[in-house]
Amino acid sequence: MRIHSLSIRNVRGIEQLDLSGLPETGVIVIHGDNEQGKSTTVEALRTVLMEKHGTTRKEVKALQPVGRDESPTVTLHATIGPHTFTITKNWLRRAKSELNISTPRRENHTGREADERLEEIIREHLDENLLQVLFMSQEDLGETISAVGIPSLTKALDGYGDDGGEADAGTEDTALLAAVEKEYTRYWSAKRGDAANDLKNAHRACEDARTEHTAAQAGHRELQGFVDRHDRVSERRDRDAAALPGAEAEETELAQKSEVARQAHEKATHLRRELQLATEAHQRAGEAVAQRGRLRLAVTQAEEELELRSRGLEEAQHAAEQEHTQLQQLGEQLAAAKLDLEKTAGQLREARRHQRLVTAAARRAELSAQLSQVGELNERVRALREQAGGRQLTDADVTAVEEATTEVTLQRRLREQTAAKLELGAPAGTQITVDGESRTFDSAPLHVELAQGTELTLGEITARYLPGRDETSGTDPVAAAGARLADLLAELGLPDLPAVRAAREQARTAAEELAQLLRERTGLLGGADEETLAAELARLDQELAEVELPEIDAAAAARAVEDAEQAEEEARKLIDVLGADLAPWQERKAQTTLTTLSVRIEAAEANLAAAQQSLAEAVDRAGDEILETALLECGKVREGAEARSRDAEAEVAAVDPELAESLHLGAQERVESLEASISEAELTLRELQGRIEQATGAAERLDKAAAALAAAQHQFGSVSRRAEAVRLLRGTLHRHRDAARARYARPFAEQLTSLARTVFGPQVEFSLSEDLEVTQRSIGADTVPVDGLSAGAKEQLAILTRFAIAGLTSRESVDGTVPVPVIIDDALGSTDQGRLGLMATLFSQMGRTSQVIVLTCEPQRYNRVVGRTEYAIEDLKSSGMLL
User: Fold this and answer.
1) Last residue of a domain, one of 586, 615, 641
2) Compositional bias (Basic and acidic residues) spans (predicted)?
3) How far apart are CA 97 and CA 90, in angstroms?
4) Which of 6, 423, 743, 765 is deepest in the core (most CB within 10 A)?
């Protein structure tokens, strides 16, 4: 298969893309930034080949253009086998399909017929699995391939003997294998080999019969259990019914005793409450007498406290007056010092402002001069770049023109040596015309080379040389070499080789001068950024635009700042000294002592007044004699309550209410338990009677289950013998098939190893599974599983495997070339620079006979590939054509 052109309309983010005139072989690099449609281009190519126009699968729905109500459309012009065709498919809205075949005979199909005809062509000359493998997406870079799953590759490998030549074996007998596999799956699972379908059903039927037999045996045993349990429950019910009357009489007697004990407990509780109240009243009377004594003591203590506080008041007042005078004097001195500090600080700010202005003005002048020089260099650089605009001649261009000029000279001389000549003689001065050019005879004969169409004019006679058939065959080497030289000169836009050499020398000189200017500009900038310096100059211009600059230099401004800083420092030191002198007085210890003493005197006076008032109010409420009399009366009441409570507690101890209640509850529980047991026994007997009646016929069920089990075991034995037979047949066929695969695994491994030596070295080897999937890579003595390889090695192996498959399937094509292109979407991203050069060699080798299409955002990865063709995807989308 070869791709000639691809046109995409309204597919995802691509509104229009046209790819035409693709070379039949070579590496084609389509590059562009991310999100520009490279992967979409690959998906569109895959979809037009493999998806019907009427499908609504999610893969096709994903082609719907973004933000536009249009149908995705893809047109492909390609050759598969002998068929050259153009297929156009629309999906989703306005779905359609058109197939036009131009060779080997013209055919036109539309709709479903077009889809089916394209599928027939692909099925006849390729296969879908091969297409899927050789369309390599970004997700496939780390995945290995099971080569046996590709029919085209299996067909290419099958039949190669150990010597590498063709053996008599053909492709695998898939019909027989499929028939055996179908019969095998009647009895066994395809994946794990477990019993399935007929065998599983026969085994299940046997197990069900065995289960039923076991259940019938259990039912028969259960019936016997019901009868035995009925007898035991009847005996327990009769025993509990005989014991119930005695238990009821005992419960009545203990209930009466419990009631007497409860009444005695309630009486004792009432008397304990009376004793508590009498005790609390006696305690309150005693507390009232004690409180009266505490009030009298509080008045005495308050009088003593007031006298003690009043003794130091006069001395504290004198110390507070002296402290106030000292604070006032030192505060005035500190305020004056602070005013002086503000004055010196203002002078310092002004001096620093002058210094900043002088410094900024100097920097502005320096930047202005620096940027002026940079601007001059920039102008010279711009002029050189304008002069060097357009295509720049390279040494390769000069070499190509030199070689073409040499070839023209060589071919002319060879023609002069071998071409037929016509020798003419005439008097000196005679003129003739040769191919429109006038020539004059001198003393020597005139020689004219004879070539196809050479024309001579002698006076009124015109002669034209027409060679024979043998002389006209082939092309004119001189004309071909001249045409090649003319094409090169026309491409360069120069008249001859000296002009080409002069233009190359001029380009080299301009490049050297440009490099020198760029170095000078870099040195002048001193590592800074030109835009940053320009921004700084603009800021300084704006800052100094409306400012009057001081008429002093930088040194004078610096001295003024130093003088102002020294004056400010002296003012600060004076403030610190005065602050230190003032700090002890600011604590106001004397005033604090006076205030504390005054407050304490006031508090003592208030305490004395409060204590005197509390004592007077208490005496008014009740005199001392009244309190003493109340205390004696409360004592007598408490003693009577204590005697009555002791008698009641003795009566309670005699009857023990808690024990009486416990005995009554135990007797009551026994009666309830006997009644519940009798009731439960009655219910159980009724249930057992029903189960016994329900289990009638258990013996008959057991007999039937035994017969069914024997029949199921016989059927299972028959199915098992058939299942074992087909498993033996399948195993035998698989062994022979695996032997055949092992035979043709060698050419696949050799093809893969041959390609891999370019990248991994001459000692590389690969281990393959039975499905021809790479499992290990060995380089010398080092063997690494595929999963243990680096990301770069995995993507290199993925590309190598596809190149190997493409190389092997080429044996199946008529013209000996790869039947499908290898399409790779954004690979070699994890490959280091050393391996990139090796991979480029491999791509170059593959491109000699194959169409290798690479889509990438980094085209420099492929700049070592010989004979590659590069296209920018933005050009394909914007121009609508491939230039």
Assistant:
1) 586
2) 209-241, 254-271
3) 6
4) 6
774 contacts 786 by C-beta, under 8 angstroms? yes
Measure the CA angle with vertex 548, ends 542 and 550; round to 5°: 120
Phi/psi for 494 (5° steps) reads -130, 155
Contact 298, 609 (CB under 8 A): no
442 vs 48, 112, 426, 454, 646, CA distance in Å?
75, 83, 8, 22, 178
- Starting at the earlier edge strand, list the strands of the sheet with 774-779: 764-768, 774-779, 782-785
Same structural domain for residues 364 and 402? no
Taking each continuous run of H as one helix and of E as one strand, the counts in the chain are 21, 20
Range(s) of the domain holding residue 348: 323-381+539-586
The list of the chain residues with pLDDT below 50 reads 159, 161-171, 470, 472-473, 812, 814-818, 880-883
Number of domains in the chain: 2
**Within a 13 Å sphere around the CA of 190, how many CA atoms are in the beta-carbon half?**
7
In a domain, residue 571? The reply is yes
pLDDT at 74: 94
Of 586, 602, 617, at which residue does a domain stop? 586
Answer for the pair 775, 801: CB distance below 8 angstroms, yes or no: no
One domain for residues 554 and 578:
yes
The answer to the question of residue 561 being in a domain is yes
- 467 with 420, same domain: the answer is yes
DSSP β-ladder status, 2-11 and 782-785: unpaired
Strands 822-825, 851-856: pairing is: parallel
Q: Are 590 and 319 in contact (CB under 8 A)?
A: yes
Claim to verify: residue 366 and residue 407 sit in the same structural domain: no
- What are the b/e assignments for 670-704, b being 16+ CB within 10 Å? bbeebeebbeebeebeeebeeeeeebeebeebbee
867 and 847 Cβ atoms separated by less than 8 Å: yes
- For residues 716 and 708, what is the distance between their CA atoms, to the nearest angstrom? 12
Beta-sheet pairing, 851-856 with 26-31: parallel
Contact 775, 788 (CB under 8 A): no
In 3D space, the residue among 873, 835, 837, 838 whose CA is nearest the CA of residue 854 turns out to be 873
Q: Is there a contact between 870 and 31 (Cβ–Cβ < 8 Å)?
A: yes
Strands 83-90 and 96-103: antiparallel
In a domain, 360, yes or no: yes
Query: Do 433 and 367 reside in the same domain of the chain?
Result: no
Q: What is the pLDDT of residue 5?
A: 93
Tokens standing for residue 167: 């053996």
CA gap 115, 109 in Å, rounded: 9
Whether 399 and 463 map to the same domain: the answer is yes
Neighbours of 821 (CB within 10 A): 23
* Same domain (yes/no): 405, 474: yes
Q: Are residues 346 and 413 in the same domain?
A: no
DSSP secondary structure, 695-752, as one string: TTTHHHHHHHHHHHHHHHHHHHHHHHHHHHHHHHHHHHHHHHHHHHHHHHHHHHHHHH
Is 575 part of any domain? yes
Give the N- to C-terminal CA distance of the chain in Å, as an integer. 23
